[in-house]
Structures are given as structure tokens and as C-alpha cells.
């Protein structure tokens, strides 16, 4: 038997090592290709429901073969999957809580099986692509679509954004938009003092009442006097975006914008009724119901309403009636249509100012609470259509028509009568109407280059507004107000005719 010399042994080992290294290098492109496929992000929009149906849709969207006995998915449900995920991660989320797992058997091939030794856990709902508008019961969220018109994580958005969630609104008991946002950094409310007629909100010192007021990403347009108002109970969240936003939203204010996000239709049933009472004879009834309209879960609805009667300080009315239906339809695997309506009827007082006696403010109202009123009625109708052509390209269109009517009358200070404590008053009336149509079209392209994910948004929006404002005035036939012994309820004057 011949024993190799040390040189020969060394040479043989080096040759073997070199051969193994060459084989490893030669296999790297194939392994890297499979790894890249597994890490590629795929857009999913799978509703909660029967597991078998959801897995079939998942396999089609991901372009994979998924096998297994049909009995494995029988009577099992899934919480659904929405967002962009790698195939295996998305599959694991879809199967969470079912006691099943998917085993990879080859390139783009998986087999469904019972999880070995696994304990069945409660389903976990993971919110992905709809997180920017989805319902949440937490104080903190990590997604917003208001600053980029795309669902983007807050920490990836180069903007200062504050989000007031539904949980925060409930905890604060917010009854108006100023109350909803008044604790937000950089935001001030009530710049003109107490005034229940309008939602006075400023960001970084700039008023956003006229050009920074948005609902579901579409501007709410005011007239000269009439201004849209929003009931906080109808909202899922409020996004406050600080800084100029004209690149995405057109002409606006340097301070930023407030985007009110409406409540969405839900997969799970919801039944909520609230009855509240408070000082100043305030009574309020609110309800919020939601459910699916068919067994397949492709049609859903939500109906939110509120009625309130009461007053603020100084006998200022605070009455409101609200109704907001939402219908959501999945028109196939790639198209969704959401129909929205909203009706708000408000009544408060127009003349809420008090008399200033020799530079000293008093609590004495100049107008008469029984004569004074500001009645506003508004309805909105709109839709949101989204179609996903493929994993990369998505088109969306939002449209809303709004009609706002306001009827106002009040008494104003016309000066003291010489040598007396009697204050003359003049009567004013205002009729204001605003009609608007807003539409926003967007095409979103997603693609990856190496380890960088890109979003390219291209869009065009259109806005039409028509408003008219009428004013009436009368200076005679009005009883004066005795500043020492004020009496109210003695004004029988008709509403001044419009000029």
C-alpha cells in the first residue's frame, strides 16, 4: 500500500476544497434567485372569512401552487390579509390561529398540513395596506395616508404628522372638531374666543378653516359665511399634517391641513347605542351599527347617527342631527367600491357676543336668545373606487358632491342712547348657500430596485364651487336692551328681508 507524501496529501485536500468552493459559487445564483422570489413583496387584499376561499385567492395573487386535503380547511375561518408581504410571511399570517401550516415542497409549491405539536391560538388580525384608515382601539397608530396619499408608515414620512385616534376622541369626550384637536402640538383653537358657529382651527399660526379642511382626502369648501362642519362621532381618526402641502393638494395654507377620516365599513358585526346627558339641559342619543350584507362578505355596510339637544353657556343653542351611511362592495378580486353619504343639521346662535361696558367685558348678551338663530343643513354624497391592475399598479378615484344651506338672523349693537343705559340694536339676516363637486384621481406604481422599495404617485384633481350670499338689515322696530335690567323674549320682529 502506497502512502501519499505530505505534499501529495496537501495538494489533494486543496484540490477538493477548491472544487467544493467552485460548486458553492456555482450554486449561489440559483439560491439567490429562490431567496429573492421568497422575499418579493406581493399586494394582498383578502377579506376575513372561510379559510379555503381565502387560500385560493392567496395562491392566485401570489402565483404559487398550494396543495392539501380539502378537509383541512373545513369549517375554519381566517382574519384575512391586507397589505404587501413576502409570500411565506403572508401565508403564515393567513393561517394564524387555524392550527395549520404550509410546507415548501419546491419552487413556488407549498403543501398544507396540520401543524405538528402546535397549539391552536386565537386569530390575530394584521392590518396592512388599509392601516391608514382602518378602525383601531389604540391611542397610537403607525400609518397615515394624509401626507403622501399612500399608506405609509409615519416614521418613513418626511412630515410632521399628528394622529388623533378614535380611542382618543372617546377618552376626551370631544363634541366638536376644536375639542378633537386642541391638545395637538402646533394647533390652536378658538382664536376669536368662544364661538360655536364655526370650527376655528389654526396650525402653526395659520387658519386652516378655508383651505386646510379635508374629509377623507377631499377638501370641504366653504362660502363667504357658510362653513362645513364635522361631527367627531362620525370619524375614525383625525390626521393633522403640518407644513405646506400644495404639491399634493394644490393651493393651501403654510400651516398645513386637517384630514378627517370617516368610519369604515367592517367585516365583523357592530352594535353600539349611547345615551348621554349633561348640564345646560343637554341630551344626546348616538348609534353605530355595521355588518356584512351577504354571506360571502363582499358587501358590507355601516350606519352612524346622532341627535343632540341642549345649550352652551348664555342660553346659546347646541342642537344637532347627524346620519352617515357607508356601503362597501368588493367587485371581484381587484376592485372595491365604497359609497358614502352624510347629513348634518345644526342649530346654534349667530349673535354670541357680549356687551363691553367701558372696556370691561360682561356676560350680558346683546342679541336675544329667542330671536337669534343660525341654522345650517348640509348633505354630502360620494364614492371611492379602487382597482388594482396588478401587484405594481393601482388606480383610485374619489368623488364627493356637497350642498350646504345656512339661515342666520341676530341682533347687533347699535349704540347707547344718550344719557341712558338703554342699548339700541339692529337686526341682521344672512342667507348662504354653497355647492361643490370635488374629484381626485390617482395612479400608484410600486416597484423595487434591489433592496429599495419605490412608490410613484401620479394624479389629477378637479374642484367646482358655486356659492351665493344674501344679507338683510333693519334698524327700526327693535326694543332696546336695558343693561341694568335686561329682558329677553320680547322681540317680535320678522327676519329682515334680503337686499
UniProtKB/TrEMBL annotation:
Keywords: Cell outer membrane, Ion transport, Iron, Iron transport, Membrane, Receptor, Signal, Transmembrane, Transmembrane beta strand, Transport. PROSITE patterns: TONB_DEPENDENT_REC_3. GO terms for molecular function: siderophore uptake transmembrane transporter activity. One of its GO terms (cellular component) is cell outer membrane. Gene3D superfamilies: 3.55.50.30, TonB-dependent receptor, beta-barrel domain (2.40.170.20), TonB-dependent receptor, plug domain (2.170.130.10). Pfam families: Plug, STN. It is a multi-pass membrane protein. It is found in: Cell outer membrane. Residues 64-115 form the Secretin/TonB short N-terminal domain. This is Ferrichrome-iron receptor. It comes from plant metagenome.
Amino acid at each position: 500500500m502506497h502512502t501519499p507524501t505530505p505534499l501529495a496529501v496537501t495538494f489533494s485536500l486543496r484540490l477538493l476544497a477548491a472544487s467544493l468552493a467552485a460548486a458553492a459559487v456555482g450554486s449561489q445564483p440559483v439560491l439567490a434567485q429562490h431567496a429573492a422570489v421568497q422575499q418579493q413583496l406581493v399586494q394582498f387584499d383578502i377579506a376575513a372569512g372561510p379559510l379555503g376561499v381565502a387560500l385560493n385567492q392567496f395562491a392566485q395573487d401570489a402565483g404559487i401552487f398550494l396543495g392539501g386535503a380539502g378537509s383541512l380547511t373545513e369549517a375554519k375561518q381566517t382574519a384575512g390579509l391586507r397589505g404587501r408581504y413576502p409570500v411565506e410571511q403572508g401565508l403564515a399570517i393567513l393561517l394564524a390561529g387555524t392550527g395549520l401550516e404550509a410546507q415548501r415542497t419546491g419552487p413556488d409549491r407549498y403543501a398544507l398540513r396540520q401543524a405538528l405539536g402546535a397549539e391552536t391560538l386565537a386569530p390575530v388580525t394584521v392590518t396592512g395596506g388599509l392601516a391608514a384608515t382602518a378602525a383601531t382601539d389604540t391611542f397610537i397608530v403607525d400609518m397615515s395616508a394624509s401626507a403622501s396619499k399612500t399608506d405609509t408608515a409615519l416614521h418613513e414620512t418626511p412630515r410632521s404628522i399628528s394622529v388623533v385616534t378614535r380611542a382618543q376622541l372617546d377618552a376626551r369626550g370631544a363634541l366638536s372638531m376644536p375639542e378633537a384637536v386642541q391638545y395637538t402640538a402646533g394647533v390652536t383653537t378658538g382664536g376669536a374666543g368662544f364661538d360655536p358657529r364655526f370650527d376655528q382651527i389654526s396650525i402653526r399660526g395659520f387658519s386652516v378653516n378655508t383651505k386646510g379642511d379635508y374629509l377623507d382626502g377631499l377638501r370641504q369648501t366653504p362660502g363667504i359665511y357658510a362653513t362645513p362642519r364635522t361631527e367627531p362621532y362620525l370619524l375614525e381618526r383625525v390626521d393633522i399634517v403640518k407644513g405646506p402641502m400644495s404639491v399634493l393638494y394644490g393651493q393651501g395654507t403654510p400651516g398645513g391641513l386637517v384630514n378627517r377620516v370617516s368610519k369604515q365599513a367592517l367585516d365583523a358585526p357592530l352594535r353600539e347605542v349611547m345615551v348621554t346627558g349633561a348640564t345646560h339641559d343637554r341630551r344626546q342619543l348616538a348609534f353605530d351599527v355595521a355588518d356584512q350584507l351577504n354571506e360571502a362578505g363582499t358587501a358590507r355596510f355601516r350606519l352612524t347617527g346622532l341627535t343632540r339637544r341642549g345649550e352652551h353657556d348664555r342660553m346659546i343653542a347646541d342642537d344637532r342631527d347627524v346620519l352617515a351611511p357607508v356601503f362597501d362592495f368588493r367587485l371581484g378580486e381587484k376592485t372595491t367600491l365604497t359609497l358614502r353619504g352624510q347629513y348634518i343639521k345644526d342649530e346654534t346662535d349667530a349673535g354670541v357676543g357680549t356687551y363691553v361696558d367701558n372696556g370691561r367685558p360682561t356676560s350680558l348678551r346683546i342679541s336675544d336668545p329667542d330671536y337669534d338663530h343660525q341654522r345650517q343643513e348640509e348633505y354630502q354624497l360620494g364614492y371611492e373606487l379602487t382597482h388594482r391592475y396588478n401587484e405594481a399598479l393601482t388606480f383610485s378615484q374619489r368623488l364627493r358632491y356637497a350642498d350646504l344651506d345656512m339661515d342666520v338672523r341676530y341682533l347687533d349693537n347699535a349704540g347707547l342712547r344718550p344719557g341712558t343705559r338703554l342699548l339700541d340694536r339692529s337686526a341682521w339676516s344672512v342667507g348662504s348657500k354653497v355647492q361643490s363637486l370635488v374629484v381626485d384621481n390617482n395612479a400608484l406604481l410600486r416597484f423595487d430596485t434591489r433592496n429599495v422599495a419605490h412608490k410613484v404617485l401620479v394624479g389629477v384633481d378637479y374642484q367646482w364651487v358655486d356659492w351665493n350670499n344674501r344679507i338683510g338689515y333693519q334698524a327700526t322696530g327693535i326694543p332696546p336692551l336695558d343693561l341694568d335690567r335686561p329682558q329677553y323674549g320680547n322681540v317680535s320682529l320678522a327676519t329682515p328681508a334680503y337686499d
